[in-house]
Each structure stands twice: as structure tokens, then as C-alpha cells.
Amino acid sequence: MSSSGTGGVPQHEKRARDRRMRQTAKKQVRRAEIVLDKYRARAAKILHTEGMHGGAEQEKPSTYVYRILRHRETGVRVMVLDCEAPDAPASAKGEAVHRYLVQCETHGLNGDSFVSAKAALKAARRSDEWCSMCSGLMSSKPKARNRARLTARHGRRDGGGSRQDSYLP
């Protein structure tokens, strides 16, 4: 019996599984880093209140970047920036009309500015409405159709139509 590819798992499925495993591992590492940073911050706060300082003073995390969102299907990164933060650059303060600015980090395009963080986060989740490059990515996404829905919508598989048409002479 030869092993000339007559059985087994197809290569495209192996590659897809490999890709999913790598993405899952990356996400797990990011989540672990976030949890670790939270514990480090708590420990530093406890040491600071008790008067004991660790080796080197750690910098406070930047408050200028309020949140970074990543779109699940396209991988686009969108940032919500707080322009009134103490570490915000002067160029950002002059650029925004309101406090929170939405920016597509992947394509380098700026969106609108918003008064509340909630409105800015909502706009960041819908980056395809204000970023022309994101809208191009979203529109090229193929739509998957269920075969049962297709056949139900068009009647029968062999041409569709209603049942009454098939009884006419």
C-alpha cells in the first residue's frame, strides 16, 4: 500500500488548524500578560502604601490610549484615544474637538471625536462606517449560505418555482 496521498487529512485543513492553534496561543499569551500586569500593579500599590519600594520605579501605563480594539474577522486594530489625558501629545489635543478620538491604527485614518467613552467605543466597533479602507475589507467578505435555506427559498433544487407551476400542462 502506497502513501501517495490517498487518505488522511487534506493539507488545507492542516494549515487552517495550525493557524487557529497559533492564534489561540497568541491570545492566551496576551491574556496571561494582562493578568500578570494587573497583579504587578496590585503588588506595587501594596508595597508603595507600606513604604517599601521595589527595585526600580515602574512607569504608570499610558492613559492617552484609552482602549485598543481588534476586529475578529478582519484583524483591524482601532484605538480610542483620550485627548485630555496628562500624557496626550499636543497634536492630539488640537486635532480633536471632543475628549475621545477614534483612530484606525491599521490604516492610519482618524475618525470622529466624541464626548463620552461609550460613544467612542461604539464607533470604534463600527470602523467600517468611517474608515474607507475598513469598509473595503468588510464588503469583500464572502457570505456563506446554507444549502437548506437556498433550496427552501427557491423551491426545489432542479430549478425552483412553486408547486402550482409544475402541475400546469
From TrEMBL:
Region Disordered, residue ranges: 1-28, 141-169
Comp. bias intervals (Basic residues): 17-28, 142-156
Protein's name according to its UniProt entry: Uncharacterized protein
UniProt organism field: Actinospica acidithermotolerans
Lineage, top ranks: Bacteria, Bacillati, Actinomycetota, Actinomycetes, Catenulisporales
